[in-house]
Amino acid sequence: MQIEDEKWMRAFQHAPIGIVISEQRIIRACNHEFARMFGYDPNELEGQSFRVLYTSDSDFDRVRNMGLSDLKSGRPFSDERLMQRKNGDQFWCRVRAATLQPSDPLAEIVLSFAELDLPNPGVPLSPRERQVIVGLSSGKTSKEIARALGLSPRTVDDVRTRLLRKFGVNNTIELLSHVVGL
Questions:
Q1: What are the helix and strand counts (H, E) for the chain?
Q2: Other Cβ atoms within 10 Å of 119 Cβ, number
Q3: How far are the Cα atoms of 45, 53, 133, 178 from residue 175, in angstroms, in the given order?
Q4: Which of 1, 12, 138, 151 is least enclosed, having the fewest CB within 10 Å?
Q5: Among 46, 37, 39, which Cα is nearest to 18's?
Q6: What is the structure's pLDDT at 140?
């Protein structure tokens, strides 16, 4: 069965998940759901650097190399990260990526974005604290979280300890129960 180009384009535009095509971290095309998720019109995003969707330059720079080894070997990459809407609101999303050129993974890449429904714990959390909570809620060890974030396991343990004190709980299970509702 051959599908006409027009049907492919309609399927892309109306997919129930945010989809974007990027070249060297520049948005070349995005669908309606991706634009809606970030509070933009699709035309506003096309040609823009992904930087406009991150909370800081350091977050934008940090995620650049995440998953490159998977992509270079032809495997898709997936993670969860804090992103920023046009109005400045921050939200967590799951990002999945597949490259069209494993020899130069960022040359042409297709990404999907899905909002994660993490409740607001009522206590302000730093981006780093949120990253550690996402890792913990995924069942990752401190070493795995550290590797994913480019940190030392000791730094992750320090953040976890700070979170335990902040929420007045004794262990990670209680922390996740309180923060994520597990």
A1: 9, 5
A2: 8
A3: 37, 29, 9, 5
A4: 1
A5: 37
A6: 85
Other residues' Cβ atoms within 10 Å of the Cβ of residue 37:
20
Its CATH architecture, for the domain 5-115, is 2-Layer Sandwich (3.30)
Q: State the Cα–Cα distance between residues 110 and 21, nearest whole angstrom.
A: 5
Contact indicator for 162, 129 with CB cutoff of 8 Å: yes
The label of the residue with tokens 């069942």 reads: 139
Rounded (10°) angle between helices 153-167 and 127-137: 100
Least confident range of 2-6, 34-38, 70-74, 150-154: 2-6
Q: Where are the beta strands (DSSP E) in the chain?
A: 18-23, 26-30, 77-84, 90-99, 109-115
Please report where in the chains the tokens 């809606």 appear, as a residue: 36
Query: pLDDT per residue over 26-73, tens digit each?
Result: 999 999 999 999 999 989 999 999 999 987 787 788 788 888 889 999
